[in-house]
User: Fold this.
Amino acid sequence: MIDLFQQGGTVMYVLLLMSILATAIILLKFFQFYRCGLRKTSFIKDVILSLDGGNYSQVVKNLQQQTSPIARVLESAVQFGADSHMTREDVEAEISRVGSAQVRNLESWLRGLSSIAHLSPLLGLLGTVTGMIVAFMSLQEAGSRVDPSILSGGIWEALLTTAFGLTVAIPAMAAFYYLEGEVDHVRAAMKDASIQVLRHFGKTPHISSHDDERIEDETHGL
Assistant:
């Protein structure tokens, strides 16, 4: 395997570095999502029901014990929704600000993972093209003493970079789509839960019919 790797040329080392970086990002994001407890949404119903008691400070304390980013949005929804001095537009803006910050934190490094997934096959193809150029140059230098093994050997060595590039790209792309889907689920859950909280305070944000259809589609996938 080491010999095959070395025969692939310089591009193989670049792809190896990208594979290490992609693996680190995937493991980091899985650990982050597990630690946040993205799939733990059972507390949302308890929060909605506890609002009827009127003890909003206790509701906020209970939410602060949750690690989910949804809890951070609900915490701001309860705090700002209970503030009679804040208008519906102000509350909506503050909740949107908190929610955007939570989503940005979840999306961190995902763009880098997507870049690796898209660039790896291109780098592999680049290595294959340069390897083919070298192979045909060697064939030309051989002149009339052409040995078919020169061309065939150069071709399979060149194809190593394409194979390695695809090996890096396929799992990176699969992980990216999975992680991106998890973020989309959380985003939809944040919006749905915050609307339920604000409805209790009579500060439900204005939602167009297009937004209604999009929320329904997103929450259906949860």
